Amino acid sequence: MTEIAIAHASPLSLGAIERTLAKSPSYSVSWTALDGRTALQSVEQHPPRLLLLDARIQRPNCSEVLRSVTGRCPVLLL
Description:
This protein is α/β, with parallel strands linked by helices.
């Protein structure tokens, strides 16, 4: 099972993505974040196999999060 993390600025979109992934036996959502700070802390504590990162995320913004997590886990920008 592939552990996926989701960092998305919209709670509604985050929930929809999480529910969609929950339908597949191949994936599990290891954690979610609504802002960049929470995403960075979560990557540090529990690096996922894949991070789905919303390009509109803030505090810090997407570019800063991407720069910080590069090399720690693969990232797919949404």
